Amino acid sequence: MRTTRAMLIALLVTLSVVGAGLGPATAAASASVQEQTQCSFPFTATDATGTEITVDERPERVTTLNPSAAQTMWEIGGREQVVGLSQFALYLDGAESRQNVSAAGFGVNNEKVVGTDPDLVLAPNSISNETVLALRDAGLTVFRFESATSIEAIEAKTTLTGQLTGNCAGAAEANAWMTQNVDAAQTAVEGAERPRVIYPLGGGFVAGDETFIDAMITASGGSNVVADFGLAGYPELSDEEVIESGPEVVLISTPGGAAILDSEPYASTPAAENNRTVYVERNYLNQPAPRSVVYAVGNMTAGFHPDAYGGAQFVTRAEVAASMETDEPTETTQTTTTPAPVDDTPATAEPTDATSPGFGVAAAVLALVATTLLATRRR
After folding, report:
1. Which of 133, 156, 178 is the last residue of a domain?
2. 163 and 203: one domain?
3. Residue 313 sits in which domain range?
4. CA-CA distance, 221 to 334, in Å (whole number)?
5. 320 and 196 share one domain
6. Which residue stretches does the UniProt record annotate as biased composition, category Low complexity (predicted)?
7. Angle of helix 151-165 relative to helix 212-219, nearest 10 degrees?
8. For the chain, which ranges sit under pLDDT 70?
């Protein structure tokens, strides 16, 4: 039963994960993590299913099966190529005009995916091999990524996405924007004492070591207490373990989430004693993509170390483009604003729409866990 619950809660994050996926590439075209500003076709790389995928020419129609893949396409200048995306990517500017390929509940609707008539489908690791094979049997070219566990993996995935879709210059610029802001945050807090941080996912599950969330916490000058326990992935902690870990800051990803400090076990932690939460919008905290890293790291660094990092160190996308003297401007959103200031008591109401990005996944997963537990007790 514990294993089943762990698998269900993992969907909180893996539904939004599209990782590095850098299997061995063929000699024809390497899926190298080195930045490439010029794309070439045909391009061949091995995906997470162990299949060599060849893209013969720049795809005009791309369908993304998870929100971080869609966000990446937006950031590298490929938004006009996207014809299909998941319901959790609808927060992106202009996404509502694309076909929603999500199935009722979790996963994707294969018929809707086929109906978008894509030249290329970008699939996350949370999509099963069976679904990938079914889409391939329907005649589609599908690249399935592996999970991302670090900022470097996100950088590599962005490069690979650019190579697959013909947006190499945009991918290089997006990666430069991401890495320069991560470097700026790390420089600002160098030598500072790291607060002990925890990110609750609900139902006792938390973000642990070997996850991109842990990597962002570390880059922001925090110390993930779950990683300090030697726990990887998204483990479940008991109330006693949460209290023992002694978090000084609790990460929250929904407005109103600070209320977690009012109930146990978090009411008995140093975070509650000092009323310390750091709010990062869920679409940034839970999605491994360049924009997510930039804004999540910016907000977390400002929240963990307000005296050292106030946003002045933030590097805009326009500044990066100018420094690279990019010949191919990319279409992006939110490229010149500084990270939103951290607010421990957000004024906006907590969303309750089960179809909203991120929150709907969490609510649905926890409901499914509860239903499964209840059914088990009745047997």
Report:
1. 178
2. no
3. 191-378
4. 24
5. yes
6. 331-354
7. 120
8. 1-36, 311-312, 326-379
Contact 212/288 with Cβ under 8 angstroms? Answer: yes
Residue 279 backbone dihedrals phi, psi, to 5 degrees? -95, 125
* List of residues 6+ apart from 119 with CB closer than 8 A: 55, 59, 60, 61, 62, 141
- Write out the two tokens for 42: 């045909």
| Torsion sign across C-alpha atoms 130, 207, 13, 31 | negative
Tokens of 117: 């008539």
Reported as a single tens digit per residue, the pLDDT across 323-357 is 987 444 444 433 333 333 333 222 222 222 222 23
357: nearest Cα among 128, 63, 19, 96 = 96
Residues 289 and 333 in one domain: yes
Write the CB contacts of 274 (distance below 8 Å, at least 6 apart in sequence): 248
CA quadruple 231, 236, 239, 243: dihedral, nearest 10: 20
CB-CB contact of 270 with 247 (8 Å) = yes
Question: Do the beta carbons of residue 64 and residue 89 sit within 8 Å?
Answer: yes
Three-state DSSP class for 286? coil
Q: What is the pLDDT of residue 313?
A: 81
Query: Residue 60: which residues within 8 A CB-CB, separation 6 or more?
Result: 81, 119
Are 158 and 211 found together in one domain?
A: no
Q: In this structure, what CATH number is given to the domain that contains residue 274?
A: 3.40.50.1980
Owner of token pair 């483009």: 321
Half-sphere exposure (CA, 13 Å, Cβ side) for 284? Answer: 24
